[in-house]
Each structure stands twice: as C-alpha cells, then as structure tokens.
Amino acid sequence: YVVGLFNKIGCKYEVFDDGQTLLERLKTIDLDDIGLIISDIEMPIMDGLTLLGNIKKEYKNFDIPFIINTNMANNAVIKNAKELGAVDIVKKLDVSKLQESIIKYYKR
Description:
The protein is mainly α. The protein has helices spanning 2-9, 19-26, 48-58, 75-84, 95-105, and strands at 37-39, 66-69, 88-90. Strands 1-2-3 form a three-stranded parallel sheet, with helices on both faces. Helix 1 packs across helix 5 (95-105) and helix 2 (19-26) packs parallel to helix 3. The relative contact order is 0.19.
C-alpha cells in the first residue's frame, strides 16, 4: 500500500528489502535527490531503527525526513525512534495517517 500511496501522490521511489541495502544505496546517490525515507522496524539484515541510527552516524548533516511505519510502535519504540530522529511513527494499516505524513514531510 505504501507504493500505491507514492503513486497516488506522484512521488518517485525505490523499494529495498532490508536496511543494509538502503544504507549501501545512499552511498551511490546524491542525498539531495531523496525527499523521504519510510522504513519498517522489522526487516532482515538491518532493522529500521538500526538503519536510522547508522544513517545519522554516517551522514552528520542528514536532514531527510524519516518515517517509521510499523505495528511494533509501543512507547519505548516511539521514544527511541524520536530520539534517533524519526519525524513520525505510523502504524502499518493506518493508510490515511501515512498519507498525511508523506504529504507533510516529503521534500520535493
């Protein structure tokens, strides 16, 4: 459904199966071309929170909005994600909230 939202809004996007692959991709592109990152917490190889932490360590001036889209959003996860720099945490099936967050944070 996330791809459907991107298509509906008219965003260009890339999809990655795990956080490590996305982290490697960031090394090959101009970060100014990225308007938003949406990540689940549970992913193989590297989870979303580890991904966000690694991005923040590797890219000191990282200002790309990062949204966590997960069903694992308890108070501790939300606090951790916010401390790491996530701009929003959205439950997976809350499509309208996710669409609002994409529209709000997407850097065109």
